[in-house]
């Protein structure tokens, strides 16, 4: 089989194993059981054993060999199911049709994966953290190029959780990745997405969406905010140093209203400015008394750690949230994206 694919499978299996083990180790037993539902802890161990077997086969170059004809199984099939060991051509017509359906669905889910690592971009440090409250969360963030060599950034919160929200995120991501190259204006792009979504029967909910474009030459940040939690901008230029500006919504959430009127806002950024994008799981993180973390704590936390790199600031915010929650179970996904302007 293609060596690149084997490497990718290996990486993905190892990170999945790590994620499961970390989660099981660091989560309250009751919460673990909640997430497992009627399944048992042994079921978790069985899953880990399957991952280990596949890892061993991948390392020995045996993964994905067809047990019937001894040729490599189709790579898209392996990408959907790394345990697949029979080529598609050996299935009956009916089985083949249902497999094709699965492959289509899997393609959509795969596209919904969050970026593995933030992009490198001139004059920007970018770091992100996302922690779903359930296995399939409703938060989404992404980076992509806008027309005019501008760095695009998106953060979104899909109303509702579970499988359908992950499919909606997948469509949103495909739309963004397909369309951004055509646009220079975030507001025109978001209006287009709204038109595509609002009356589409597949789009069964609405999404808050913040879209921004950073111009590395002028350091101008142009954005549109469709009903999303206002990102926090900590300014560093003389005269406004230490001031916090909230980039409040400039329009309704996508798919929520018939009104497609969005407007671009623009802020000039300067080296040292910190922009924090987040989802409501952050401000609505609750402690055991039921108090919310809230926007003002968030602002203080960012101000107190303004000198840190984007990566360290993300960690500081995560630690701040964890310290506040003191182990209280969180109801919602938590997503943080930090952009820091550098010389
Ligand atoms: Zn075969």
Question: Secondary structure elements and their pairing?
Answer:
Blueprint: H1 3-26, H2 29-36, H3 41-59, H4 75-80, H5 93-111, E1 124-131, E2 139-146, E3 150-158, H6 163-179, H7 186-197, E4 207-214, E5 220-226, E6 232-234, E7 244-246, E8 265-268, E9 274-278, H8 280-283, H9 294-304, H10 310-325, E10 334-341
Antiparallel strand pairs: 1-10, 2-3, 3-4, 4-5, 5-8, 6-7, 6-9, 9-10
The chain binds zinc ion.
What is the C-alpha radius of gyration, as a whole number of Å?
A: 22 Å
- Helical coverage, percent range: 25-40%
Largest β sheet strand count, sense and barrel closure: 5 strands, antiparallel
| CATH topology tier name of the largest domain | Phosphatase 2c, domain 1
Bound heterogens, unique: zinc ion
Classify the secondary structure makeup into a structural class. alpha+beta
Structure description:
This protein is an alpha+beta fold and 343 residues long. It folds into 2 domains: 3-111, Four Helix Bundle (Hemerythrin (Met), subunit A); 124-341, 4-Layer Sandwich (Phosphatase 2c, domain 1), CATH 3.60.40.10. Helix content is 40%, strand content 18%. It has 10 helices and 10 strands. The chain has helices at 3-26, 29-36, 41-59, 75-80, 93-111, 163-179, 186-197, 280-283, 294-304, 310-325; strands at residues 124-131, 139-146, 150-158, 207-214, 220-226, 232-234, 244-246, 265-268, 274-278, 334-341. The strands form 2 sheets. Strands 1-10-9-6-7 form a 5-stranded antiparallel sheet. Strand 4 (207-214) and strand 5 form a beta hairpin. Helix 1 packs antiparallel against helix 3 (41-59) and helix 5 (93-111) crosses helix 6. The chain is globular and about 70 Å long. Bound molecules: zinc ion.
């Amino acid at each position: 089989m293609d060596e690149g694919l084997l490497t990718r499978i290996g990486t993905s299996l190892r990170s999945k194993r790590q994620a499961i083990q970390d989660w099981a180790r660091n989560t309250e037993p009751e919460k673990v059981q909640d997430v497992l539902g009627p399944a048992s802890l042994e079921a978790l161990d069985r899953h880990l054993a399957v991952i280990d077997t596949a890892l061993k086969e991948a390392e020995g170059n045996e993964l994905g060999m067809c047990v019937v004809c001894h040729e490599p199984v189709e790579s898209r099939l392996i990408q959907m199911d790394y345990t697949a060991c029979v080529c598609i051509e050996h299935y009956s017509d009916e089985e083949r049709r249902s497999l094709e359906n699965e492959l289509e669905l899997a393609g959509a889910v795969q596209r919904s994966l969050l970026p593995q690592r933030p992009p490198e971009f001139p004059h920007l440090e970018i770091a992100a953290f996302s922690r779903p409250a359930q296995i399939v969360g409703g938060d989404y963030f992404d980076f992509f190029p806008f027309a005019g060599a501008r760095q695009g950034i998106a953060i979104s919160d899909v109303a509702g959780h579970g499988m359908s929200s992950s499919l909606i995120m997948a469509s949103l991501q495909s739309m963004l990745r397909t369309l951004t190259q055509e646009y220079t204006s975030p507001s025109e792009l978001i209006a287009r997405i709204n038109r595509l979504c609002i009356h589409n029967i597949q789009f069964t909910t609405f999404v808050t969406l913040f879209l921004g474009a950073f111009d590395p030459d002028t350091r101008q940040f142009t954005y549109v905010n469709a009903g999303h939690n206002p990102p926090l901008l900590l300014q560093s230029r003389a005269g406004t140093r230490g001031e916090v500006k909230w980039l409040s919504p400039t329009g309704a959430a996508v798919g929520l209203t018939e009104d497609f009127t969005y407007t671009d806002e623009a802020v000039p950024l300067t080296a040292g400015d910190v922009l924090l994008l987040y989802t409501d799981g952050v401000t609505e993180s609750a402690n055991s008394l039921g108090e919310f973390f809230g926007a003002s704590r968030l602002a203080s936390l960012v101000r107190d750690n303004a000198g840190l790199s984007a990566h360290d600031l993300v960690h500081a915010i995560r630690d701040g949230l964890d310290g506040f929650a003191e182990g209280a179970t969180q109801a919602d996904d938590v997503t943080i994206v930090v952009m820091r302007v550098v010389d």
